[in-house]
Amino acid sequence: MNSAAVVDLSNSPHAVVRPVAPGWVEISEGFWAERILAMRGHGLARQFEQCEVTGRLRNFERAAGRLTGEFEGRYYNDSDVYKWLEAASYALARAPSAELQSCVDRVIDLIRSAQRPDGYINTYFSGSRASWRYRNLTDEHELYCMGHLIQAGVAHRRSTGSDRLFEVVVRAADHICETFGPEGRPEPDGHPEIELAMVELARETGDSVYLRQAVFFLDQRGADPPNLSGLHYHQDHAPVREQPNADGHSVRLTYLAAAMADAAMDTGEAELLEASIRLWESAYERRAYVTGGLGSRYQGEAFGADYELPNDRAYAETCAAVGGIFWNARLLAATGDARYADWSETALYNGALVGVSPDGAAYFYANPLATDPQPTPDDQQGLHSSGAQQTVGGHQRQPWYDTACCPPNIARLLLSLPGYAYGVSAGALWVHHFLPGRVEAALPDGDSMTLQVTTRYPWDGNVDLVVEEAPDRPVELRLRVPSWAEGASVEANGVRETVEAGAYAVLRRVWPAGTSVHLRLPMDVRLVASHPRVQANRGRVAIARGPLVYCIESADHPEANVDALVLGPDSDLQPSDEPGLLGGLTTIRGSAGVAVKSESDELYSRFQGGRPALTGSTALTAIPYFAWANRAPGAMRVWIPYVDG
Amino acid sequence: MNSAAVVDLSNSPHAVVRPVAPGWVEISEGFWAERILAMRGHGLARQFEQCEVTGRLRNFERAAGRLTGEFEGRYYNDSDVYKWLEAASYALARAPSAELQSCVDRVIDLIRSAQRPDGYINTYFSGSRASWRYRNLTDEHELYCMGHLIQAGVAHRRSTGSDRLFEVVVRAADHICETFGPEGRPEPDGHPEIELAMVELARETGDSVYLRQAVFFLDQRGADPPNLSGLHYHQDHAPVREQPNADGHSVRLTYLAAAMADAAMDTGEAELLEASIRLWESAYERRAYVTGGLGSRYQGEAFGADYELPNDRAYAETCAAVGGIFWNARLLAATGDARYADWSETALYNGALVGVSPDGAAYFYANPLATDPQPTPDDQQGLHSSGAQQTVGGHQRQPWYDTACCPPNIARLLLSLPGYAYGVSAGALWVHHFLPGRVEAALPDGDSMTLQVTTRYPWDGNVDLVVEEAPDRPVELRLRVPSWAEGASVEANGVRETVEAGAYAVLRRVWPAGTSVHLRLPMDVRLVASHPRVQANRGRVAIARGPLVYCIESADHPEANVDALVLGPDSDLQPSDEPGLLGGLTTIRGSAGVAVKSESDELYSRFQGGRPALTGSTALTAIPYFAWANRAPGAMRVWIPYVDG
Fold this sequence. Notes:
Helices cover 31% and strands 19% of the residues of chain A. By secondary structure, the first copy, chain A, is α+β, with helices and mostly antiparallel strands. Chain A has 3 domains: 18-419, Glycosyltransferase (Alpha/alpha barrel); 421-520, Golgi alpha-mannosidase II (Immunoglobulin-like, Sandwich); 525-641, no CATH class. β16 of chain A pairs antiparallel with β22 (604-606) of chain B.
């Protein structure tokens, strides 16, 4: 069953570009192959261990009556197990592993035993707490957890052909449909997720009752009086079709808006799709980090105001970048608009990838764009809180978190990544992402087309494609040209032509086997500026090359304070391949001015003139943002002051 | 009883400068007289109305058994009534008012009736919740509320001579001393306040048991295992004598550190004083806003890291500025160091005063240093939260808040302000603040000295003092020279000499009646720069004149976007007296460059060069920060970009 789709749009009437299932995509080597391999082996194994030692699996044993004692951890911990299972299922689809298979089987057995006879399942609301079921949909994440169970079950069935988990899923879904609805309880879940799950379950079963249930949940938000809290935090402040801006909890918003686009592809409701696009424009045109990170505020893990994008206090949860990729993928499928593939790529290579170490086993939850080594406390506040101590600054990767949503989220993204690379529409094969390997795409009209792709992307902008098989009639090859790739060109049959950046280059012709296409993306080092209303970045630039955003880290500047480094017209930034660094990177090297340390150490003093005084210059090395914090703890900056000559 | 001291250090053996009680200080006219008058009349009356309509007074009636029904509002609402009562007591000490007296008497009667027979009092933990008493000292503010009761009772006795409230206070305090202590319960309160109250009660009664109780509470924090949560939020992360930095909830920290200095003046414990000073250096040398505001984060209402001082997301709660003034006043008394008077003045004229409108009846809770008119949601988060919707941006003054700590806090500060202006030490009279009027100071050695002060401060830097009465032996007149007043001079007996800024100018001589002293503080318009590590203010300056920090507000720039205004060498900023504006102000006028609106509206784009392009110039008007948001809602900026010619 290696044709397992992540999002299966093959029967969605209103999809424009249907993803090619990952089973038809081979990633042979290079950037993502290494990362997928690390996650498939070491990463998944360490995550499973964490689920064991933190009691997440014991909670299932208790709910199954096989173990006594109290539930351990947070009431939403089941979801981490389900997300791990989804990721593990994708891994098994790509490469058999007896060890991983036995872990998966054991978890599925536990889940089967823990499910209540009526289909409900949640290990926290079991035993003496069984009567608390659904007492507080606003906060207690029961449908969120079952949503992740459903996604895992669909992934497991598509990956392995087995129904052992899927049977549980259908029982749980039917229980939910019986309990919530026009004749039942009115609440959605405070944390969106069940909506995405129900849409995909409808696709897997062909039963539209689950699609209707998803739309029901979508439309239960923002009621008057509210079904939940009425708060932005719970995405309950306004009906989803009317929300003007991406507000409230950023992960919840991405899941919600992704589900709106997803459902619209099956129901054809233009209003739902338009509302998702309106939210996207708010999120990505005014409220996103240059890394594709989302969520400007620790408070409420929320979006900020337009252009409110602090660097040191960026929350930019890994899950929000991942959720943003889910969302962009669905809008891309629903519209074919390259802007969604652009932001998907930005988030993939930066805001999401930064959340995991090269070995797949150390993670970030919040992702600042500037940090200093000295940590400062950032407790959770509030009445009756069981608040944990957090810190800001001194960011270091962790093997796990009490709230461990991010590690399995990045795992399921990485292990399903081949499913995001290609798409098909009538008579067309779309290349969204540039991965070395092979794709064997079934076109909607029954033909198939096979491409071989060779590239060192993202380190190099040459993408060489060879057609291995194609129909003997004209077919469109649609190659995405990223928005940063001004001056890109495509050469086919010896003819080179410049193509527009931020769009798909459309090559329509008959493709004899062996035809080569050469996409050339300019990989000059770019300086990026922010909209002037982004106060945190005034007078600063970010270094970028290709899809990668760079940063400076103190590990590369042992003699200098990274906060004193200043770019200027003479910085002469050049790429430098460094195969031995952090698994192999292209760094960017040049020179930086060094701001004179002010004589006074006063917090406020009389202004002495506008231009920062510089004292000589020093060598500057920038590394990709995703690679930071894998050496000694230290300071890091994405946005660097720029001073004209 | 017009000699009522706010902080009575007359018998504190380790005080260095003892405040002159407000009863001996007359403020005849001008800046503060107008504001005190507004608060004494309209402000207190509106606050009383709010206590009525929001059920704060009905809660006392219920606890007294005179009314049925459920407690209304938040569990800490009693404290607002107590703080109002403290403020009203100060008001009555200065000017009799039958109307205010009758409100005060009614509230005291309610309090007397609501107190339990054993001395405990809290209207939330009454009736069916009586058994919940002290179930959760970490979060539930019972000692915090009783602390405010004690402060109110001491203020009321000192102001009116009446014991009717003070009897309640002593019973409550004795109950607390019996319940908590080495042989009793170990917890302090999650919100410091009881410590300040107990120290002052010890002074009022002469009974050192209350002082010991204060020190006990101070030292119960940061225990291992913790008595509370162990969190910074509750100031429970480390023993107070060892805390290295001002961390956690900013209001709590100011109250706690003020109490540490306060207790040290009575116990002589140098360690407590040094620890308070260490925290002060962390707070004011690395973590304070230029306005004297404290608290960089909405999350946890907390201090940020060193130099983490965002403008749009400044929390800077009015109560933290007020608490900072309490703290600075105590450190000034304990040391005589002018730096505490400096920051006290900064907070008074800016970070605290901004919290109240000119008529005394509209308030701010959070005080950003930059805001835009479009509000964005900022819900409270969290499990089982009854979270209210908040917004950021679109800041407007409110007549009251659900959590209404700030309005009565600014009231009690304003109405006790004369008590902060002067101090005495052996053979010396200290002038901390410049208020037109008169002071009749009892020197510690039995002599007295009377001064008449004439000044238009803060609009004008001329402070003229005439000695009306003085001992016939040499006495020091110590005049504070603010740290911004470089080039200040003092003229006495026809001799003018330059005096050092940021210190007390010491004039020691025999003062025949009628001797004049002229302090001349330069009131040039200053541009202020931040330490380069304050990322939010890079490339920006603040406008200041005298003790006032200025801001630009869209109300004065109807044609321009305040975000586009840029200062430079040609801005020619000049003060301009405007008696008709917002009750009479000196604005600062000049010209600003206008940054060209970038052609692209993209969030991120290719950097086009370092210098912001300017299109012509426009008239700029800056108003004092404290005066903003009293006209139409709009944008505001304290920190303004500065571009060299």
